[in-house]
Specification:
single chain, about 325 residues, alpha/beta, Rossmann fold, seven-stranded parallel β-sheet, two-stranded parallel sheet, about 20% strand, globular, binds nicotinamide-adenine-dinucleotide
């Protein structure tokens, strides 16, 4: 019997990369679930060529999803569904809260009925604007309930609580990945997160917009490294009932990132400064000792290598039409 695996948020950035890896194993039967709110079916084009992949267009926040007949006998659930870019979660705050709370609850209940394993993709945003650097899993965070990022940060935190309770009450093998900024050219051109913004602006010779003075820091993990970590988390029993930071501990100032992308893209863009959004975190860097110890994992793709590949593929996606205009596809 093939192993039945559900990936929620399958048409999104990370979901589609994960599906691509999972369908390579012929004994897996992968069911992608997505409501296509921020995801694109075109991300799954390759997956649709596999007999061991099927897709369900549905909202995982709806309770009926638990009883879906295709889900019977599921062994593994990767719960990725949720807008992740501030641009999208701030446009859909209530849907974001619903998917991280009710959606997570539904996936945990589905796991309970089938004795399946669950991996929940939480986020470094649960640390808010941290007072500790690097952030360890023990750090409880500095999050604001009353601001434009709260719908995401706080609903992810409640999602973690639900995972904890299903693990404690019903011994469901639950794993929580706190993912730090991950990137590749798989991000939508209009995704709004910093790397896609800067790369697209640099390629189009548009102004590169830095928010604030650019002294705030972030850590960037190439998508291949993040996906490897998620697969290992699902596989390792030692990760059951654990929260693990997944990210690249190399930390960069945003202004340095802007200059690096400008250089690597050989761009004549200007770098300009705009007002820092409310509650924007000033620092962000994962402590990954736990990931090393439990998963034997650490990222191997450094920023410059990852950016070169990202810029190459974005350039391919955004050809120049005959009349000299840029053709932009997402
Ligand atoms: N990419 C990162 O750097 C990063 C960092 C931290 C955490 N994460 C987490 O990883 C997960 C995936 O992030 P991503 O970058 O791929 O985001 P994404 O927006 O590209 O993908 C999310 C997917 O979930 C789908 N979705 C949203 N609400 C849904 C619902 N109610 N029902 C079904 N599908 C729904 C969207 O259509 C989309 O395809 C998210 O949970 C996010 O919070 C990502």
């Amino acid at each position: 019997m093939p192993k039945k695996i559900i990936v929620t948020g399958a048409a999104g950035f990370l979901g589609s990369h994960l599906v691509r890896e999972l369908v390579k194993e012929k004994n897996n039967f992968v069911i992608g679930v997505d409501n296509l709110s921020t995801g694109l079916l075109s991300n799954l084009e390759e997956a649709f060529n596999n007999n061991n992949f099927s897709f369900i267009h549905a909202d995982v926040s709806q309770k009926e999803i638990i009883g879906h007949r295709e889900f019977k006998g599921v062994e593994e659930i990767y719960h990725l569904a949720s807008p992740a870019s501030p641009k999208f979660y701030q446009a859909f705050p209530l849907e974001t809260i619903a998917v991280n709370t009710l959606g997570t609850w539904n996936m945990l209940e589905l796991a309970k009925r089938n004795r399946a394993k669950v991996l929940y993709t939480s986020t470094s945003e649960v640390y808010g604007d941290p007072e500790l650097n690097p952030q360890t899993e023990q750090y409880r965070g500095n999050v604001n309930t009353w601001g434009p990022r709260a719908c995401y940060d706080e609903s992810k935190r409640l999602g973690e609580v639900l995972c904890y309770e299903y693990y404690r009450l019903y011994q469901i093998p639950v794993k929580v990945a706190r993912i730090f900024n991950t990137y590749s050219a798989g991000l939508r051109n209009d995704d709004g997160r910093v790397i896609s913004n800067f790369v697209v602006q640099a390629i189009q010779s548009k102004d590169i917009t830095v928010y604030g003075d650019g002294s705030q820091t972030r850590s960037f993990c190439y998508v291949d490294d993040t996906i490897k970590a998620l697969l290992l988390m699902m596989e390792k029993e030692e990760a059951n009932g654990q929260i693990i930071n997944i990210g690249n501990p190399q930390e960069y100032k945003i202004i340095d990132l802007a200059y690096l992308i400008k250089k690597l893209a050989v761009s004549d863009s200007r770098i300009i400064f705009k007002e820092l959004p409310e509650n924007d975190p000033k620092i962000r860097r994962p402590a990954i000792d736990k990931a090393k110890r439990i998963l034997g994992w650490y990222p191997v793709i450094d920023l410059e290598k990852g950016l070169r590949e990202t810029i190459r593929v974005y350039k391919e996606k955004m050809g120049i039409s005959k009349n000299g205009e840029l053709r932009v596809e997402n």
